[in-house]
Design goal:
It is an enzyme of class 2 (transferase). Its EC number is 2.5.1.18. Keywords: Transferase. The chain is of the alpha+beta class. It has two domains: about 80 residues, Glutaredoxin (3-Layer(aba) Sandwich), CATH 3.40.30.10; about 100 residues, Glutathione S-transferase Yfyf (Class Pi), Chain A, domain 2, CATH 1.20.1050.10. It is built from eight helices and four strands, in the order E-H-E-E-E-H-H-H-H-H-H-H. Strand 1, helix 1 and strand 2 form a beta-alpha-beta unit.
């Protein structure tokens, strides 16, 4: 039995989305954030990192979203959500999958942190703004003439990308990137993501005004 340890308002909704896309049975254990919006200490008893998502399957305990997505697809997906191994498309797909939580995540997280703390220091803001613009332009160029990152087929990379774009939209950062907004709209129209949000809640909350 697959068990997913899930934190409310978090990127682990992406793992629920994949589980729904694959039609897998799973047990969802949901934890609530504390008053400082941090994970509760109980998660550390499941995995030393003490954060979600954490997947448990046949005694295997995994953290990190990309690792979990790859594992589930390789074990249960039969290639439905990735290009064929050994092809150029697979290499490009994996580049996008890794890009989300590596190069793209840094300026995104700084931007979101600044929005929550009254703004970034001048030096950090001077770095973050151009890096975020570069990331969003890169994504926009990719999806302007494609339904998804790899064409007309939903892949793991799209599922992984959904959290960052949702968080940026809710922080008011996508207004000048209509191609990215349209792409996110297409992701949110997916029955799998709709079900994941119904089961696990949203990945990000709109900014308070």
């Amino acid at each position: 039995m697959i068990t997913l340890h899930h934190l409310n308002v978090l990127r682990s909704t992406r793992v629920i989305w994949l589980l729904e896309e694959l039609g897998l049975g799973y047990e969802l254990k949901t934890y609530q954030r504390d008053q400082n919006f941090r994970a509760p200490p109980e998660l550390a008893s499941v995995h030393p990192l003490g954060k979600a998502p954490i997947l448990v399957d046949d005694g295997l305990v995994l953290a990190e979203s990309a690792t979990i997505l790859r594992y589930l697809e390789q074990k249960y997906g039969d290639g439905r959500l990735v290009p064929a191994p050994g092809t150029p498309d697979r290499a490009i797909h994996d580049e996008w999958l890794d890009y989300v939580e590596s190069s793209a995540a840094l300026p995104v997280m700084f931007t979101l942190l600044g929005a929550k703390t009254g703004g970034l220091p001048t030096g950090l803001a001077g770095f973050t703004g151009p890096e975020l613009a570069k990331a969003l332009a890169y994504i926009a160029d990719r999806v302007r003439d494609r339904e998804y990152l790899m064409g007309d087929r939903l892949t793991l990379a799209d599922i992984q990308m959904s959290y960052l774009l949702t968080a940026l939209r809710n922080a008011g950062q996508l207004g000048t990137y209509p191609a990215v907004v349209a792409y996110l709209d297409r992701l949110e129209a997916s029955p799998g993501l709709k079900k994941a949000i119904e089961v696990g809640g949203p990945m990000s909350l709109p900014a308070r005004t």
